[in-house]
Specification:
With about 190 residues, the chain is an alpha/beta fold. Helix content is about 40%, strand content about 15%. It has a five-stranded mixed β-sheet with strand order 2-1-3-4-5, sandwiched between helices. The model has no long low-confidence stretch (mean pLDDT about 95). The structure holds zinc ion (ZN).
């Protein structure tokens, strides 16, 4: 059982004081907040590829690294990181080969039906109540456009300071190579001029 394995490891981890190399404060040392994808290939690769260590950054993970709502929990976390945790830069880091770029809301809904979790009547009732499940489950067509869209959402957010750089990067989930999609410093200087 996975939980038992985890707990067994955890007991040893704490007993052997394996946590010592990871001791840090809650304030991010590099004063940055990152929004990225929940892709399992990025668990260790993303921080290693960016030279981030424990305590360096606030990292928010979501399917596709997308901010789906200007007043949802991701945006709430960014606002908290900026005002309460001294984050001075925001990074939106999508990745090539993201599952959300080929997301298939129809297929997901079919699986929900097949598992007997909800009936077609319930799905129809939700749609009737104005909940667009296809839209809700849909990711994006193209990761670059998605990153740019997220950056627009953050930059135009009424609660985000106008002088904070918002960067957009795309990471390769195999090599960790970063492509700069939006250089937040450049965008800021463009706005000043
Ligand atoms: Zn992804």
């Amino acid at each position: 059982m996975l939980l038992q394995e985890i707990l067994k490891h955890n007991e040893q981890f704490v007993e052997n004081k394996e946590y010592v190399p990871y001791e840090a404060t809650k304030m991010p040392q590099k004063r940055m907040v990152i929004v990225s994808c929940m892709d399992a290939r990025l668990i260790e690769l993303l921080p290693k590829a960016l030279d981030l260590h424990n305590g360096d950054a606030k990292i928010l993970k979501t399917a596709g690294g997308t901010i789906t709502h200007p007043f949802g929990s991701i945006m709430r976390s960014i606002v908290t990181a900026v005002y309460e945790l001294n984050a001075e830069e925001i990074y939106v880091i999508g990745h090539h080969g993201c599952g959300m770029s080929q997301s298939n809301p129809k297929g997901t809904l079919q699986k929900i039906l097949d598992r007997g979790v909800a009936s077609q009547e319930i799905l129809s009732a939700l749609e009737y109540a104005g909940i667009d499940l296809h839209k809700w489950l849909f990711g994006f067509d193209n990761v670059i456009d998605s990153i740019k869209g997220n950056i627009e959402l953050v930059r135009n957010h009424p609660l985000i300071p106008k002088d904070i750089p918002v960067h957009g990067l795309a990471i390769a989930p195999d090599t960790g190579k970063l492509d700069v999609i939006v250089d937040g410093y450049k965008e800021l200087s463009l706005n000043v001029n």
